[in-house]
């Protein structure tokens, strides 16, 4: 089922497609985060990414519960947007030798992921609310709040924990 295809006939179909999109995205993020953690050198960045890896596992569990509430098996649909963000992050990280600059790039790349997720979760919440899926709204809102908090923590690491300052001095 692709966006703007005949497979999507109703708002309910659109919600399910959106859940499949973010489910796939979270799966890809689970695969990408360990590499980011391994490459990061700033201890606050490593700790934040490690914590978010654990959160992402819980987010996937909540998405699985959302699918169950809809009577659907959890499944993903390929998401070119998250694939592109992760591909760009990997390419950028592969081009940077200085560890301080690499940490700054990792923060930026992680924030690109967070912003994508915040966008998707916000839309899914609006659709689930419109369709009266209150329990799904709660699951998605918890995920959205965690994504917002992760983004705020990344800002803190970049600005107050010295990642950007060290990178600019490199």
TrEMBL record:
Q: What keywords are assigned to this protein?
A: Coiled coil
Residues in a coiled coil are 46-73
Q: Which CDD domains match?
A: YciF (cd07909)
Pfam families in the cross-refs? DUF892
Does the keyword section mention Coiled coil?
yes
InterPro entries reported in the protein's UniProt record: DUF892_YciF-like, Ferritin-like, Ferritin-like_SF, YciF
Look up keyword Oxidoreductase and say if it applies.
no
PANTHER family (UniProt xref): PROTEIN YCIF
Tell me what this protein is called. Answer: Ferritin-like domain-containing protein
Species name for this entry? Bradyrhizobium cosmicum
